[in-house]
């Protein structure tokens, strides 16, 4: 975030949101009559704390205050309209795969960004989708602010398909997908020998974020490669940080055995920093997921055997994984993930309701909110940066008309990095234009 | 509405007789209008009284602390202070809600079932833009696991299964009870009229334009649609004359049979149409052709012409918040449903989705909340008409179901809290008075053949 909205400069300023029911987003239960203090775009205190003198006070009495929602897995910002190819950058059929970096494609002016922002989504994990390889390329964390600087963390992770879709991309078999993966990591390993050594002891790079997406040394003629390579040089070079554990490897897998195969990768490649997305059958291997400490970004309400990889799907999946100690968050892979991230809070609310169904496993309210705030942030290694109202986090705050996990509540004030955001969208403008259909002195086209 | 049926053998014999008698005109024969009749029979149910419960009757009524009596498959009584019939099961409804069962007017359960594999893609006969001869019921797989989710999570007691929207004329729909059966006939809603699926806009022109055939444009859509109706009118005249006067039986055309049924008012029109301007064109087209549009489905822009829709008596089946997946969905607004309702037009919340059908109550809640935020103060009991009475009317089954009036089918959901909340779920669901789901009884949770012996069999879903 760099541009400030003219009317509401917030940086270098203290804001105190007082009197509301404050939910920190860290799994704890909400605090009635709490205060949230933001200074210079960061949270400095939240809970039963005093409002500092001189702060701009926003009265939230009767409202709920939470961290901005984090879309745990999305394609937000990558398109305007799904079915308009020219306005859709989710997938590439071009020559590159792992080297693709989605950051330059993110368009903060796309309507889905504004519509999700207005519904309280302030950050999104954004992944490309696979084209002609099991590797989709490098995803980012973005904010949804009304400015032209959307990317919070570029090249946060590499996204790979290792379930039914991965098998299809690899030529029709999971066996092929696994060989492709291992070969790609072998090529990266070979090429990596020419690159810069991993920083040790000295200047630490931020975890999971290679400063140099593609080490230039790997692209020179001196960086010799074997004759029998499949990947382009750029793609192989892009996997070097993955192999070294400097960039997350986010893997889509739904079937129980696919999940276990992903966990097994670390025996061969011990530095991999894995995240699993989807995991419809995760509850059936919850103990092993928990033991691995690999985070899971799961689909909350997936309960149909949509494919043979999801036969055991149930809405209790997240609750059961959580109860077993898995680091789990809510994401929306392949669930209108380019547009409908705002459903996350409804899904979380459903998991609270699920707890009342005999035989089902749901979540406490505080845990449910965490599933769409701090847990996805933690899954991608950024729990210290976003996703909760604990001190030091970015000043992403939403004031809601009521309980944010209820479908009847709406966002009434949104801060991103402490900057107040607009709530109007094309949708609200269309609504206002057509709320009265009576003929006026001029056509509707003159109303705005 | 249903004409008397005759068997095929009798028909053939009669035709021969007709040819042999020469000068004297043969008497007209009636075509069997119901060759795949419903074999559904209600399951036994215990007489039941739910007491002390909040009742949303589905047609706008609300009773706090009320009672409802179900027996013999029917709603017997609704009110306050009602006594239990002797031997009745008595359920304490304190803190809970009873509603009319939810009816989804737009589903592809069964014709696009789970698992969503290529072998199951049975919803679009995309081999020609006008395929009114196909019937969705011939694609419906009764073992789709999605039916059970719609029952247990969604409280859906009846639904219309439609062909897809690749074609201008997609074929006949079928309305079913959400009761598991071995055959589709075993699910068919007795007495429900057929529907005809039609489509406007992007899908038909994309599907056929990409094949280099007509229609490739919206004007092509309209031209093919009008020409097809012109053909249907001619067919109808021929058959009407035959049925009046007898003589030689005209050739039978299954496609034209369906359209003749629409022109006769026996088959209801369900028109997939997103954009307001296209709805207006379809309304004029329907008048030219001589039929009435029952419902616009996916009516994303109804709010722009809600006055027109109210005047014409056309229902709009809508999502709460879907938008932007294609150009014709770009102008969606969250207030579409309440704006249509407020204009005095018939509003329906529909799913078109095996997940959405599990949460239609929550979709209605979102729409209701959006309306209230803009100042449209619609009551919860009124909003429930979007889920029960209005879809029942759109499907032509409101005499039998769609509200909790004495004498109607006991299609009833007991919710464990306010059904407009994300925190509430169906606790029990009755269809024709039979308890088909009970959250407290794992034996009352249907498991499709497909899921039997698979991971997660019989799990809560």
From TrEMBL, chain A:
Gene Ontology molecular function, alphabetical: hydrolase activity, acting on carbon-nitrogen (but not peptide) bonds
Amidohydrolase domain boundaries: 316-410
Annotated segments matching region Disordered: 193-220
Domain of life the protein comes from: Bacteria
InterPro entries (alphabetical): Amidohydro_3, Metal-dep_hydrolase_composite, Metal_Hydrolase, Metallo-dep_Hydrolase
Protein name, as recorded: Amidohydrolase 3 domain-containing protein
Any one Pfam family match given in the protein's UniProt record, by short name: Amidohydro_3
């Amino acid at each position: 975030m760099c541009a400030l909205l003219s009317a509401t400069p917030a940086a270098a300023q203290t804001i105190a949101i007082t009197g509301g029911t404050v939910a920190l987003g860290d799994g704890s239960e909400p605090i009635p009559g709490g205060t949230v203090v933001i200074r210079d775009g960061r949270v400095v205190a939240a809970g039963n704390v005093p409002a500092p003198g001189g702060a701009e006070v926003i009265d939230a009495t009767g409202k709920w205050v939470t961290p901005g929602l984090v879309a745990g897995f999305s394609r937000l910002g990558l398109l305007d309209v799904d079915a308009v190819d020219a306005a859709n950058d989710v997938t590439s059929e071009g020559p590159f795969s792992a080297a693709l970096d989605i950051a330059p494609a993110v368009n903060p002016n796309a309507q889905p960004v504004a519509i999700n922002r207005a519904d309280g989504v302030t950050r999104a994990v954004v992944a490309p989708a696979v084209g002609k390889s099991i590797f989709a390329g490098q995803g980012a964390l973005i904010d949804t602010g009304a400015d032209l600087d959307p990317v919070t963390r570029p090249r946060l992770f590499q996204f790979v398909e290792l379930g039914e879709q991965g098998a299809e991309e690899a030529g029709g078999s999971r066996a092929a997908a696994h060989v492709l993966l291992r070969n790609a990591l072998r090529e990266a390993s070979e090429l990596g020998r020419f690159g810069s050594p991993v920083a040790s002891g000295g200047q630490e790079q931020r975890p999971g974020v290679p400063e140099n997406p593609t080490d230039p040394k790997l692209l020179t003629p001196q960086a010799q490669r074997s004759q029998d390579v499949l990947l382009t040089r750029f793609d192989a070079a892009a996997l070097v940080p993955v192999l070294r554990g400097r960039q997350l490897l986010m893997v889509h897998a739904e079937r129980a055995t696919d999940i276990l195969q992903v966990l097994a990768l670390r025996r061969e490649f011990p530095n991999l920093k894995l995240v699993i997305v989807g995991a419809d059958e995760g509850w059936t291997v919850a103990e092993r997921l928990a033991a691995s400490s690999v985070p899971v970004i799961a689909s909350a309400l997936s309960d149909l055997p949509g494919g043979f990889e999801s036969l055991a799907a149930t809405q209790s999946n997240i609750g059961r994984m959580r109860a077993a100690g898995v680091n789990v968050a809510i994401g929306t892979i392949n669930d209108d993930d380019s547009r409908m991230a705002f459903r996350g809070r409804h899904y979380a609310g459903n998991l609270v309701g699920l707890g009342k169904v005999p035989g089902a496993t749901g979540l406490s309210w505080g845990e449910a909110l965490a599933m769409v705030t701090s847990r996805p942030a933690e899954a991608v290694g950024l729990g210290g940066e976003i996703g909760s109202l604990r001190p030091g986090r970015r000043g992403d705050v939403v004031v809601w008309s009521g309980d944010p996990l209820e479908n009847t509540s709406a966002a009434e004030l949104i801060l991103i990095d402490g900057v107040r955001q607009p709530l109007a969208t094309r949708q609200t403008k269309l609504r206002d234009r057509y709320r009265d259909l009576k003929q006026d002195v001029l056509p509707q086209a003159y109303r705005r | 509405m249903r004409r008397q049926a005759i068997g095929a053998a009798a028909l053939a014999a009669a035709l021969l007789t007709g040819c042999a008698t020469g000068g004297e005109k043969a008497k007209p024969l009636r075509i069997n209008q119901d060759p795949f009749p419903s074999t559904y029979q209600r399951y036994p149910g215990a007489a039941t009284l739910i007491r002390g419960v909040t009742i949303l009757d589905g047609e706008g009524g609300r009773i706090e602390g009320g009672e409802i009596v179900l027996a013999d498959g029917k709603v017997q009584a609704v009110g306050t202070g009602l006594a239990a019939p002797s031997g009745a099961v008595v359920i304490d409804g304190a803190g809970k809600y009873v509603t009319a069962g939810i009816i989804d007017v737009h589903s592809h359960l069964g014709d696009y079932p789970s698992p969503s594999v290529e072998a199951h893609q049975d919803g679009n006969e995309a081999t020609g833009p006008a395929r009114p001869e196909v019937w969705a019921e011939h694609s419906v797989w009764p073992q789709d696991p999605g039916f059970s989710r719609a029952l247990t999570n969604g409280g859906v007691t009846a639904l219309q299964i439609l062909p897809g929207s690749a074609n201008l004329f997609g074929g006949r729909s079928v309305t079913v009870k959400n009761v598991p059966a071995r055959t589709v006939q075993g699910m068919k809603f007795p007495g429900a009229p057929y529907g005809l699926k039609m489509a406007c806009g992007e899908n038909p022109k994309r599907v056929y334009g990409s094949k280099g055939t007509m229609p490739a444009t919206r004007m092509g859509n309209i031209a093919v649609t009008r020409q097809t109706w012109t053909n249907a009118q001619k067919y109808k005249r021929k058959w009407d004359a035959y049925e009046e006067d007898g003589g030689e039986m005209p050739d039978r055309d299954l496609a034209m049979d369906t359209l003749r049924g629409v022109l006769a008012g026996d088959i209801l029109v369900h028109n997939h149409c997103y954009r307001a301007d296209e709805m207006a064109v379809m309304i004029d087209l329907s008048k030219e052709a001589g039929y009435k549009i029952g419902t616009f489905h996916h009516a994303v822009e109804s709010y722009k012409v809600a006055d027109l829709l109210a005047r014409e008596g056309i229902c709009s089946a809508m999502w709460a918040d879907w938008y932007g997946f294609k150009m014709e969905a770009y102008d969606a607004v969250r207030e579409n449903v309440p704006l249509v309702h407020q204009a005095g037009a018939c509003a329906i919340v529909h799913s078109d989705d095996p997940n959405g059908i599990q949460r239609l109550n929550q979709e209605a809640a979102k729409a209701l909340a959006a309306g209230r935020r803009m100042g449209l103060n619609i009551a919860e009991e009124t909003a429930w008409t979007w889920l029960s009475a209005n879809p029942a009317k759109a499907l032509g089954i409101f005499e039998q179901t769609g509200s909790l009036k004495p004498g109607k089918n006991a299609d009833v959901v007991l919710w464990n809290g306010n059904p407009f909340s994300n925190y509430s779920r169906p606790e029990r669901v009755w269809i024709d008075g039979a308890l088909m789901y009970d959250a407290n009884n794992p034996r009352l949770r249907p498991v499709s053949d497909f899921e039997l012996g698979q991971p997660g069999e019989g799990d809560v879903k």
